[in-house]
TrEMBL record, chains A, B:
GO molecular-function term, one example from the UniProt record: transcription cis-regulatory region binding
CDD domains in alphabetical order: HTH_LacI
Keywords per UniProt: DNA-binding, Repressor, Transcription, Transcription regulation
InterPro entries xref list: HTH_LacI (IPR000843), LacI/GalR-like_sensor (IPR046335), Lambda_DNA-bd_dom_sf (IPR010982), Peripla_BP_I (IPR028082)
PROSITE patterns from the UniProt entry: HTH_LACI_1, HTH_LACI_2
PANTHER family to which the protein is assigned, alphabetical: HTH-TYPE TRANSCRIPTIONAL REPRESSOR CYTR (PTHR30146:SF151), LACI-RELATED TRANSCRIPTIONAL REPRESSOR (PTHR30146)
Keyword match Hydrolase: no
Ranges where the HTH lacI-type domain occurs: 5-59
Pfam family, one: LacI
Gene3D superfamilies recorded: 3.40.50.2300, lambda repressor-like DNA-binding domains (1.10.260.40)
Record carries keyword Transcription regulation: yes
Descriptive protein name: Transcriptional regulator, LacI family
SMART domains linked: HTH_LACI
Length: 341, 341
DNA sequence: TGGTGTGTTGAAATCGATTACATCAAAGCG
DNA sequence: CGCTTTGATGTAATCGATTTCAACACACCA
């Protein structure tokens, strides 16, 4: 429990003023070489470390950014967090994380208490009044909300849905099911809309089940699907977790994927490739997205609002074809009818 | 871009001194009811929010804890993070995350720059000199290191390994394989040692492959296992990811789990239950662990070092039997021998 | 009536850095 | 040689809160 070393201690040991120590550390070229050496030596022997509260107060900034996400334990986010932290850490920024589903008042405070000087927002369901009330640099990532007055970095969800539908239609599936996310979620909305539109364009029949992106929702959807008189043979899930839950429940129901039904997921999480069978899915480059969002925030912090209208093109989707999709087999599709006849 | 409201603004509007405003906010019972009301009113109309840099500086604390983990994108951690954040957020603490594999100098700074007043450490491979040099409340979680002078909250890995071995032995498996984690990792070490000890106690043959907890390592181990003349019929993997990778690769090799080989994982991640077949594994209560670690840190922050020697009993393991383990089938086990004869 | 305690309040010091401004020496220049 | 410029350094103000200490009013009690 050594007493904390302050800048005055370094200054007195080096025989200079605190101003000089401060300068030697943050703008070495402005002090004489001899002085600089003395100061550095004193810093070393005292083991001085800056007190950031003091510096932050004086400089009116926190050297910290905040990541706000609706569910920290969602595995979809972890790689994004890692990328943001890496990118931000490289330029000396601390990274805070917080669940965005805390009380409204706490949420308001986050933008005002001066503990963060930028926010990466992964939640599109916060009251716009709260979000626009923060006057901090802000970027929306993945989820977004038209009412937020901030640049965003989003994935091209409609194009992704089209890719999925085209893939299934190309394989000959004429009846498709989409297991969607929660109704009030933009990602779910745009994927659902994209699905319906693409299905119409390909003239295939389209049905939608509501879900919430989770494994459990996928399993539930599988049970509903199994109870259908006419089972769609192509299923497009709004998340990989959901798709995996669907397939897993199919296994319990004695339905084989992809023989009896083709399933395609969304995200390309790590497990997608190691599931049995490996999941056909739409890849979202999560690491790249996190990295880019971090860079946007950093640019805004430095350029002071420079990137305000910098909402660029959406991130392009990529279809990853693996083992859960197969050409529609007319025989299999009609097996029940055959059994009846 | 409204000018930031300061405490003096509130004070002058309310017609009192800043001291009174400060007291009205942090110790309301010490100011008169009439004054309190005036102040609260002024706070409301001005929209005053405290500047935490100023408060932190004066109070010499940061109201923030830091989570340090060796790999932020590891899905095993996400639920732990969420639990810590929830618990810490409830008592007004901010949560920072950082990868622990940043440079040594940056690591040293973390304990000294005053931005965090407590650390939850999930990495046992940091130089003890660095860790013990921080004079901040610290708790070790999950991973640990004997040289760190700090309380820890750990999982009972030897007992867990015993549980796994006993389960396989009870099912009649006489030859076991353990796919371990990296050599320098305490978790891997203790699981490996527990495995060998338990196998000896049950008089079953035991082999160990090195790995690193990842899906890829599991797949690699499956290939090695498949090349063995005498394949162990019971496999205990040091992580669920590893087990899933093993099973997934088995599928590609035409080997069936659990018919040809029983596999047991470690962690009970969310996917374990939705994998096909569902993974038999050892459960680590990650949420509970995070929550408890957060409470330890909070207690240390309040009680100032009270919980110094509070390293309690290790968390008890729980075996979750699902679909990847089956009784050893002598016929299957000897099928190759039979084919030769 | 005077002394003591109690409850409220304000003035000013304080936390530990950064930085605007002043100072001073040395150098450059006609 | 005197005057300006430049570079290095120190002094002191500043960031915005908290907190110590003193002051004061009032009640209570002997």
């Amino acid at each position: 429990m050594a007493e904390r070393v302050r800048i005055v201690d370094v200054a007195s040991l080096a025989g200079v003023s605190t101003a000089t120590v401060s300068r030697a550390l943050s703008a070495p070229e402005t002090v004489g070489p001899a002085t600089r050496k003395k100061v550095m030596e004193a810093v070393r022997t005292t083991g001085y470390r800056i007190n950031s509260a003091a510096r932050d107060l004086r400089q009116r900034r926190a050297r910290s950014i905040l990541i706000l996400a609706p569910n920290l334990s969602n595995t979809f986010f972890s790689r994004i967090f890692a990328a943001i932290q890496e990118e931000a850490g490289a330029v000396g920024l601390t990274v805070q994380i917080s669940d965005s589903r805390i009380g409204r008042d706490k949420l308001v405070s986050l933008g005002y208490d001066g503990r963060a000087d930028g926010i990466v927002l992964l939640d599109g369901n916060i009251d716009p009044e709260v979000v626009n009330g923060w006057n901090l640099p802000l970027v929306q990532l993945s989820e977004w909300n038209e009412s937020y007055d901030a640049p965003r970095l989003v994935f091209d969800n409609p194009a992704a849905a089209r890719l999925a539908v085209d893939h299934l239609a190309d394989l000959g599936h004429r009846a498709l099911l989409h297991v969607s996310g929660p109704a009030e979620n933009v990602l779910a909305e745009t994927r659902r809309a994209g699905f319906l539109e693409a299905a119409a364009a390909r003239a295939v029949s389209a049905e939608v089940f509501d879900g919430d992106f989770t494994l459990a929702a996928g399993a539930e959807a599988a049970r509903r699907w199994a109870g259908l008189a006419e089972r769609p043979t192509g299923v497009f899930c709004a998340s990989d977790e959901c798709a995996l839950g669907f397939i897993s429940e199919c296994g319990r129901l004695g339905v084989s994927v992809p023989r009896d039904v083709s399933v395609i997921g969304f995200d390309d999480i790590d497990f997608a490739d190691h599931f049995l069978p490996a999941l056909t899915t739409i890849r979202q480059p999560r690491e790249e997205m996190g990295r880019q969002a971090a860079r946007m925030i950093v640019a805004m912090l430095e350029g002071q609002g420079a990137a305000a209208g910098a909402t660029g093109a959406p991130i392009a989707p990529e279809l990853v074809v693996r083992g859960t999709t197969l050409p529609a087999c007319p025989a299999a599709a009609r097996s029940e009818a055959a059994a009846e006849g």
